[in-house]
Automatic annotation (TrEMBL):
NCBIfam families: GGDEF. InterPro entries: Biofilm_reg_signaling, EAL_dom, EAL_sf, GGDEF_dom, Nucleotide_cyclase, Rev_trsase/Diguanyl_cyclase. CDD domains: EAL, GGDEF. Residues 530-784 form the EAL domain. The chain crosses the membrane at residues 44-67, 73-93, 105-130, 142-161, 173-192, 229-250, 262-279, 299-319, 325-344. It comes from the Bacteria. This is Diguanylate cyclase/phosphodiesterase. It comes from Granulicella tundricola (strain ATCC BAA-1859 / DSM 23138 / MP5ACTX9). Keywords: Membrane, Transmembrane, Transmembrane helix. The lineage of its organism: Bacteria, Pseudomonadati, Acidobacteriota, Terriglobia, Terriglobales. It holds the Pfam family GGDEF. Gene3D superfamilies: 3.30.70.270, EAL domain (3.20.20.450). Residues 390-521 form the GGDEF domain.
C-alpha cells in the first residue's frame, strides 16, 4: 500500500498463541489422525527456505530504510517480493493438505495474495510510468479492495476443517453481516463515489475482517480450528494496527521510501512466519475447554456480531446521503440480519436446552430413558389409576449371564446386545408404557395394568421378546432374562417399589432364571431367611462344623454291608437340624458347594479308611457330586489326593452323579468320566429314571452303577407295574454289566420282591438310617462280631 491508500493482508489459516501455528490437520486413509503427519523432507525444506527468505527480506527492507540514502527502489522491491513469498507458502501448504476443504482454505488465501501482488505491481507502474489522476478509481484501488473478499470467505466458514461440516443459522447470519458490509463498502466506492475516503474505507474494512475472524474463532469446534483462526485473528489484528499507524504517518507527510513502508511489509513477514510453522493441535473438541473459556467464546461471538452490525449500519448510513435507495436497502438489511440473528439465537438456545435436558435424562447407548427420567416420569402413572383395580406395575428386567457374554465376546458385542434388548423391550411394550435402562444390563418397564394376572402376562411378553435369538456380529446368541414384578398404587413410594421389584428379580434368578417373579412379602421373607442361612453356612464351613452321616449299602446275596454313602448333615446351634433339601441348594447358589463337598469327602475318606483297617473289611465310599462340582477341572485330582492322604484306595471311591450332570457338554463330561476311570474311581448314576434319562448314557459313558430312585420302590408291594419297571431296569443293568442298587427300601416285603427280581444291592431305612460316625462304627462292630459267631 502507498500514500493515501491502505490495503489489508488476508491471513492464512494461521494458528496463534504466543507463537501462532499454521499447519492444517491432515487425514490419512480417510480417518482423522490425532497426530499431525510430518512434512516430507522436500516440503519442509521449501517452507524453511521461503520463511527464511521472508525474514531476510524484512531485515533487508528495514536496513534499507534506516541506512540507505535513497531506499525507494529496494523498499518497493521488497514489498513485491514479500507477497510473492507469502503466495508461494500458501501454495506449498495447499499441496501438502490432504483434505479438499483445507486445500480450499489455502487456495483462497493464495488468491488474496495474488490480488495483493498484482495491486502492488500496478501501483509501481502508476508510481513510475503513469501518473495517478486524483478522484479516479484506479485498478490497484479495486484490487486492494477485492483483497478482503477471499479473506472474508475464509473467516465466514466457507471452508471447514471437517468435510461436510455445516454451519448453523446463527453463524451464517453473523457472517452475512460481514458480506453485507463488503457490499456496502463496494457501493461507497463504485455506486456512491466519495461517500467514504479510501483511508477510512480501508480502516473500516480492516476492522471488519478482525471482527469476522473473531466471530469464526468463537464458533471453532476443534482445537485445530481454534488455533487456526486464532492465528489468523492475530495476523489481521497486527495488520489493522499497522495499517492504521501507516495511514496516520502518511497523513503527516511521510511518503514512499520512508519508515512508513515498514508498516506494510511487517504484517506480511509475520504471516510468512506463522504460515511456515508446524501445527501440533489434535482434533479435540472445544467442549473440553474449561467453562470460563467457553464463556469467553460466547462473549466474543456476541461482541463481534454486534460490532459487525454496527459497522454495516454505519456504512449504510454513510451511503444513504449519496444514494438513498441503496442506503435504505443496506440499512434495512443490516438491522434485519441482526434482528433475525437474535431470534434464531434464542430458538437455538431453547433447542440446546432441550438437547441438554435430553442428554441428562437419556441413556447414551440405547437411547432409552435413564434412571433420572424414570424417577421423573413414573410418578405420572399414579394419575392414570382411575379405577380401584388399576395398579402401577414395575417390571425390573435383568439379562441372565450377560457378564459371561461381555467377558467372553467383548464389550462391543455386549453393547450391541444391550441396544437390541432395548429395542425389543420397547417393541414388546405399549406406547403409553415407560421403558428405561437403569444401568448395566438392568432395565425397568413401568405401566398401568388391571391386576396381577395382566402383569404376569405382560412380563411373559417381555420374556418371549428376549428369548428370540440375537444376531450380533455374525453370532447367534440365545439369551434369557429374569424379571421382578411389583404392583403399587398412589400410596407407594417409587424408590420402595423399585427396591421390591429388584428383590423379586433377584428371587427369579434364585429360582433358576428365565422367569418372572411377582413380589410378595412372604416370598421376600423366605429370601431373607435363605440369605441368613447362607451366611451361617459359610461360617460353619469355615469352622469345619458340618457333620457327616453314613448310610450302609447292603448286599442281599452276601448278607453284609459292602459300602456306605456319606451324607452332609447340619446341626445348627439355634435352629436345630436343618434339612439337606434346604441348605444344599443354598450352598449351590452361594458357591459354597465345593467347600461343602470337600469336607464331606475328606471326613468320609478318613472314616472309611479307619473302619476298613479296624474291621478287616473293604467298604467303598459313595459321595454325591453336584453338576457345579463336576464342572471343576481340579475335582478328581483333589479327591485322589484326599483319598491318598487318608489311606483309602481310589478304587473304593464311588462318585454319585445325577442325570443333570450328563446334560452338560458331552465332551467335557466324557473327559471327566474317563479321568475318574483312570484314577480307578467308580461312577454311580443316582436317581435313575427321574430326570432326563437316555439309554445312550449307559452305552456311551463309563458308568459303573445305577441307583434306582426311591420313587419306584415306594408301593412296590402294591403296584405290579412298578415291579415290572424295576425288573426292566435290573435286566438292563445286568445286560450292560452295571451294578444296580435299589434306594429307599423300608419294608421286608419290598426287600423280598427285590431279592426275587435278582437285585443284589439295596439301601434304605430297612437296613439302617444314616448314622453318625460312632454309631456306624458300632454297627460295623456288631456285624463283624455276628459273622465271627456264625
Amino acid at each position: 500500500m502507498r500514500a493515501g491508500e491502505e490495503g489489508f493482508v488476508g491471513g492464512s489459516p494461521g494458528m496463534g498463541g504466543a507463537a501462532a501455528r499454521m499447519l492444517l490437520t491432515l487425514r490419512a486413509g480417510g480417518a482423522v489422525k490425532r497426530q499431525r503427519r510430518l512434512l516430507s523432507r522436500r516440503e519442509l525444506t521449501w517452507v524453511s527456505v521461503l520463511v527464511g527468505l521472508a525474514v531476510l527480506a524484512q531485515v533487508v527492507h528495514t536496513f534499507d530504510l534506516l541506512f540507505v540514502p535513497r531506499p525507494l527502489w529496494i523498499s518497493n522491491g521488497m514489498q513485491v517480493l514479500l507477497p510473492v513469498l507469502a503466495l508461494t507458502i500458501c501454495l506449498v501448504r495447499r499441496g501438502e493438505s490432504g483434505e479438499e476443504v483445507r486445500r480450499s482454505l489455502w487456495t483462497k488465501l493464495a488468491a488474496a495474495f495474488v490480488f495483493w501482488t498484482v495491486a502492488e505491481l500496478l501501483y509501481l507502474a502508476e508510481l513510475y510510468v503513469i501518473p495517478k489522476t486524483a478522484n479516479l478509481n484506479w485498478p490497484d484501488d479495486v484490487l486492494w479492495l477485492l483483497f478482503a473478499l477471499p479473506i472474508l470467505m475464509v473467516t465466514s466458514g466457507a471452508g471447514s476443517f471437517r468435510k461436510g461440516d455445516a454451519r448453523n443459522w446463527v453463524s451464517g447470519l453473523d457472517h452475512g453481516q460481514a458480506f453485507l458490509f463488503f457490499f456496502i463498502l463496494l457501493s461507497s466506492v463504485f455506486f456512491a463515489p466519495h461517500t467514504l475516503p479510501f483511508t477510512t474505507a480501508y480502516n473500516v474494512q480492516n476492522l471488519t475482517l478482525v471482527l469476522s475472524c473473531v466471530l469464526r474463532l468463537s464458533s471453532a469446534e476443534t482445537m485445530t480450528e481454534l488455533g487456526f483462526y486464532g492465528g489468523l485473528g492475530v495476523y489481521l489484528l497486527v495488520y489493522a494496527v499497522c495499517a492504521g499507524v501507516g495511514n496516520a504517518l502518511q497523513a503527516r507527510g511521510m511518503g514512499p521510501g520512508s519508515m512508513v513502508d515498514i508498516f506494510w511489509s511487517l504484517p506480511i513477514t509475520i504471516f510468512c512466519v506463522l504460515a511456515g510453522m508446524r501445527l501440533s493441535g489434535a482434533e479435540r473438541s472445544v467442549r473440553r475447554l474449561r467453562p470460563w473459556a467457553r464463556s469467553v467464546a460466547r462473549l466474543m461471538q456476541g461482541v463481534s456480531a454486534l460490532g459487525l452490525a454496527i459497522v454495516s449500519v454505519g456504512a449504510a448510513a454513510a451511503v444513504m446521503g449519496r444514494h438513498p435507495v441503496l442506503g435504505y436497502m443496506s440499512l434495512v438489511g443490516g438491522f434485519g440480519l441482526f434482528a433475525l440473528r437474535t431470534v434464531v439465537r434464542e430458538l437455538q438456545s431453547f433447542k440446546a436446552n432441550d438437547q441438554l435436558r435430553d442428554a441428562v435424562l437419556r441413556d447414551h447407548l440405547t437411547g432409552l430413558g435413564n434412571r433420572a427420567l424414570f424417577r421423573e416420569h413414573v410418578g405420572s402413572f399414579v394419575t392414570k389409576l382411575v379405577r380401584p383395580e388399576m395398579k402401577v406395575a414395575l417390571m425390573f428386567v435383568d439379562l441372565d449371564r450377560f457378564k459371561a457374554v461381555n467377558d467372553e465376546l467383548g464389550h462391543g458385542v455386549g453393547d450391541r446386545l444391550l441396544i437390541e434388548t432395548a429395542g425389543r423391550l420397547e417393541r414388546a411394550s405399549r406406547k403409553e408404557d415407560l421403558v428405561c435402562r437403569l444401568g448395566g444390563d438392568e432395565f425397568v418397564v413401568a405401566m398401568v395394568i388391571a391386576g396381577e394376572a395382566m402383569a404376569r402376562n405382560r412380563a411373559e411378553d417381555l420374556l418371549d421378546a428376549i428369548r428370540e435369538p440375537f444376531a450380533v456380529d455374525g453370532r447367534v446368541l440365545k439369551m434369557t432374562a429374569s424379571i421382578g414384578v411389583v404392583l403399587g398404587d398412589a400410596t407407594d413410594d417409587v424408590e420402595s417399589l423399585l427396591r421390591k421389584a429388584d428383590g423379586a428379580m433377584y428371587s427369579a434368578k434364585k429360582l433358576g432364571k428365565d422367569q418372572a417373579q411377582v413380589f410378595d412379602v412372604a416370598f421376600i421373607e423366605r429370601m431373607n431367611q435363605n440369605w441368613m442361612l447362607e451366611q451361617e453356612l459359610q461360617r460353619y464351613l469355615e469352622e469345619d462344623a458340618i457333620q457327616v452321616a453314613f448310610q450302609p449299602i447292603y448286599s442281599v446275596t452276601a448278607k453284609r454291608i459292602v459300602g456306605v454313602e456319606a451324607l452332609a448333615r447340619w446341626s445348627h446351634a439355634v435352629r436345630g437340624n436343618i434339612s439337606p433339601g434346604v441348605f444344599i441348594p443354598i450352598a449351590e447358589e452361594a458357591g459354597l458347594i465345593g467347600a461343602l463337598g470337600a469336607q464331606v469327602m475328606r471326613r468320609g475318606c478318613r472314616e472309611v479308611a479307619a473302619w476298613n483297617e479296624a474291621w478287616g473289611v473293604s467298604l467303598f465310599l459313595s459321595v454325591n457330586v453336584s453338576a457345579k462340582q463336576f464342572a471343576d477341572a481340579g475335582l478328581l485330582a483333589a479327591i485322589h489326593s484326599m483319598a491318598g492322604e487318608c489311606g483309602l484306595g481310589a478304587e473304593l471311591i464311588h462318585l454319585e452323579i445325577t442325570e443333570s450332570v450328563l446334560l452338560m457338554d458331552d465332551v467335557a463330561v466324557e473327559r471327566t468320566l474317563m479321568e475318574a476311570r483312570g484314577y480307578g474311581m467308580g461312577i454311580s448314576l443316582d436317581d435313575f429314571g427321574t430326570g432326563y434319562s437316555s439309554l445312550s448314557y449307559l452305552l456311551n459313558l463309563p458308568v459303573d452303577e445305577i441307583k434306582i430312585d426311591r420313587s419306584f420302590i415306594n408301593d412296590l408291594h402294591l403296584d405290579p407295574r412298578r415291579v415290572e419297571l424295576v425288573r426292566a431296569v435290573l435286566t438292563l443293568g445286568q445286560t450292560l454289566g452295571k451294578r444296580v442298587v435299589a434306594e429307599g427300601v423300608e419294608r421286608e416285603d419290598q426287600l423280598e420282591i427285590l431279592h426275587g427280581l435278582g437285585c443284589e444291592f439295596v439301601q434304605g431305612y430297612l437296613i439302617s438310617r444314616p448314622l453318625e460316625s460312632e454309631a456306624m462304627n458300632d454297627l460295623l462292630g456288631m456285624v463283624g462280631k455276628a459273622r465271627r459267631d456264625c
